[in-house]
Amino acid sequence: NHDQTNIPRAPGRLDYSLSVTDSVGQTVHAADTLQVDQRTLRTKKRQLVDNAEIEHYSLLLFNFKSAELSPNDRAELNFIKKRITKRSTVTVAGYCDRIGDVKANHVLATQRANAAAQILGTEGVQAVGQTELLYDNATPEARFYSRTVEVTIKTPLEHESN
């Protein structure tokens, strides 16, 4: 039965039952309860620290030796831009893989950060090129993931007046 009307949409209890029949007709039944903790993309990307909301975003689609943003990255940056308020401080950190000259990679990392920061706007946005590696770079996949930009938004929480 694929009834999706009872799928939890908030934290709570999930009661389930399962019946499995093998090829010779033997059936086994199981039932139990699970506690459900709702984790949305928003809660995964958001933290509360020192009376501020901190949000983290990553763009992982830079091509080798390129600072050009893809259409998907531009769409994500436009979404991120809507999360920025006048009180927010924004850090855009660009990264590279370990292939090539360290100085050239730092320049490229800075270009990646600047490309993203340009879409986000200049007020309250700091773009920096990083020299450390995010991943060990031993595999092509790790090098691909290292060609990224991370955006961090820190917004002070508003205090209610009495």
In short:
This protein is an alpha+beta fold and 162 residues long.
Overview of the molecule:
- By secondary structure, the protein is of the alpha+beta class.
- It is 27% helix and 31% strand.
- It is built from four helices and seven strands, in the order E-E-H-E-E-H-E-H-E-H-E.
- The strands form two sheets. It has a five-stranded mixed beta sheet with strand order 3-4-7-5-6. A two-stranded antiparallel ribbon has the order 1-2.
- The longest helix is centred in the C-terminal third of the chain and has 19 residues, at 102-120.
- It is extended.
- It starts with 11 loop residues before the first strand and ends in a 6-residue tail after the last strand.
- 20% of the residues are buried.
Supply database-style keywords.
single chain; 162 residues; alpha+beta; five-stranded mixed beta sheet; 4 helices; 7 strands
Oligomer: single chain
Please report which band the strand proportion falls in: under 5%, 5-15%, 15-25%, 25-35%, 35-45% or over 45%. Answer: 25-35%
Q: In this structure, how is the largest beta sheet organized?
A: 5 strands, mixed
Radius of gyration: 22 Å
Mean pLDDT: 83
| Helical/strand content category | alpha+beta
What is the approximate shape?
extended
Structure annotation, total helices: 4
Strand order of the largest sheet: 3-4-7-5-6
Number of strands: 7
Distance between the termini: 53 Å
* Fraction of residues in H or I helices: 25-40%
* Residue windows where pLDDT falls under 50 for at least 5 positions: none
- Give helix and strand order, one letter per element, not per position: EEHEEHEHEHE
